[in-house]
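Why do we bother with holo predictions? Because pocket geometry can differ from the apo form. Keep that in mind while you read this record for 2-phosphoglycolic acid.
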Amino acid sequence: MKIIEVKDYTEMSQKAAEYIIEKVCQNPKINLGLATGGTPVGTYKNLIEDHEKNGTSYQNVTTFNLDEYIGLSGENKNSYRYFMDEKLFNHIDINKNNTNIPRGDCKDIEEECLRYESLLANYGGIDLQILGIGSNGHIGFNEPGTTFTSQTHVIKLAPSTINANARFFKSIEEVPTKAITMGISTIMKSKEILLLVSGENKKEAIGKLLTGKVSESFPASVLKNHPCVTIIADKAAISGLKSHCQ
Ligand code: PGA
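The structure, written out:
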């Protein structure tokens, strides 16, 4: 794993955007894996600014998001479809038909898991996957205990995840308790992974990732088995830890 330590959230967002833009320029037909949550918002802002200023085009890019809440339609302001449209897709020249997010409002959710997994395979998989990390070590919504062999599946959200995400909802009761998420093996099939980590509240998680053993009880630890992972982490999250892994 390559680690890039940056000053703060602003610098993490700039560096991450530069990283993605370079990949898009190298391969305009790239399959990008995208994440939601607070971490990538600044990165998406930088992508939009660059698109407006420098004209980086996403016309031929295809995107696949990691996850979606079960029970929310794309029109719901708390859905990840709505989030992605608002935070990125509406502001760049991407064809919305090329933006894929699991559907959380399907009647047959098991069928939707299979559809999403085979869609990814049909597109040849993800070239670059952007990831955040949960304070409990989840990647996507793969909560502790998820098997490393998992494909796109339904997950019951951990109480700590529901608590952490309640900040986006009017009340904690509104946070869905289940989600559909790419599995760990789905994520691991990505050719390259960019993990973004910011803030003191992620320090314990990144510490466990860098110094702990690979275990299904800490999903992000699987990234140690991936041949091409870059971590961009700010000082608040990583200072004093980086030397443990180099
Ligand atoms: P956050 O979430 O970016 O809102 O901290 C990260 C995650 O849960 O994966």
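The mean pLDDT is 96.
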